[in-house]
Amino acid sequence: MTASITRAAVVGGGYMGGGIAATIAGAGIPCTLIDVDLTTARRRTDELIGETANWAADGLLDQAEVDAVATHLSAGTDIEESVAAVDLVIEAVPEVLALKHTTLARISAAATPECLIASNTSTLPIGTLAESVEHPERFLGCHWMNPSRLIPGVEIIPWTGTAEEAVHVASEFHTQVGKRPTTIGDVPGFIANRLQHALFAEALKLVDEGVATPETVDEVSRNSFGYRLAAFGPFEVADMAGLDVYQSCLEVETEHYGDRFASTPLLEDQVSAGSLGLKNGRGITPLASHDPEVVGAIRNRYFRGLTSLLESVEGLEGLRHPRHDR
Ligand SMILES: NC(=O)c1ccc[n+]([C@@H]2O[C@H](COP(=O)([O-])OP(=O)(O)OC[C@H]3O[C@@H](n4cnc5c(N)ncnc54)[C@H](O)[C@@H]3O)[C@@H](O)[C@H]2O)c1
Predict the structure, then answer these.
(1) Which candidate among 25, 209, 253, 303 keeps its CA 20 to 30 Å from the CA of 97?
(2) Residue whose CB lies within 8 A of the most ligand 1 atoms, among 38, 91, 122, for a mutation test
């Protein structure tokens, strides 16, 4: 297994794969982008180099990154030629199981046995995809979020046969290219999509039941619990609100909406043991052990900063009104 990544390739240069390849090249690591043919790959690398320059002109990136992308991003002729001498291949072709299998089989047959292979699949279990990979102990999921150049989080998903070394090298690599990798379990949808799709499924129900319009659901989400989520995860939020409070809320919602709102032993055990969160210093997350005044002061600075940021993003409010000239 390779100990570090000095050359990479991305297969599938669309929305995700293009951003992933540009991020890698922007961090100074040579990266080849492969698509259905060389013409498409060249078109995409040209677009990505242009996009990088535009972003720098808008102040989103510095000139060093523009230069790094122009120097280190290249277009590949095909999978077989392009992956033969790299340490990492990230597969980002469309979310079609048969296509993923064919593509991963081609990649793993052409790469060296030491080469790390990752899939950027959004939902497909990594253990299923591993069936078509030669030397599957070097295979894992690396799930970037959209827009891939700007969202820091990447889910690193070993299947049961992934070597520990592969997880280590993948995590180090993602940190090196400026991401925040988190290693998680191999379940359909992983963590991020399982959570955000649960929210979306509930949002659809609210609209289908006639409770709200999509616009209302979005407005409430943005202006209330969504406001918290960049700084505090669901468990930290529950610790701040009070675990007993959350238990009571889930009881009412379970009565009305059924078992999809049912509490679990994790919450029940905490509350019966008297761990109520920040208010009594014991909860699910480390945050509960801190001084409530200190937590409150930090939380307040975050909310004030977020409010100012949102007000300063030019054009954001305009997106809530339809454009009629398209
Ligand atoms: N779009 C998102 O928000 C998002 C977020 C996270 C993960 N993903 C996942 O990333 C993967 C790619 O999604 P996307 O949105 O970038 O799709 P996309 O359609 O924008 O890009 C797919 C690219 O793969 C190319 N391609 C198709 N067949 C190919 C082949 N045989 N060989 C080489 N290239 C081929 C296409 O030409 C296209 O450029 C999917 O698994 C998707 O689930 C998507």
Answers:
(1) 25
(2) 122
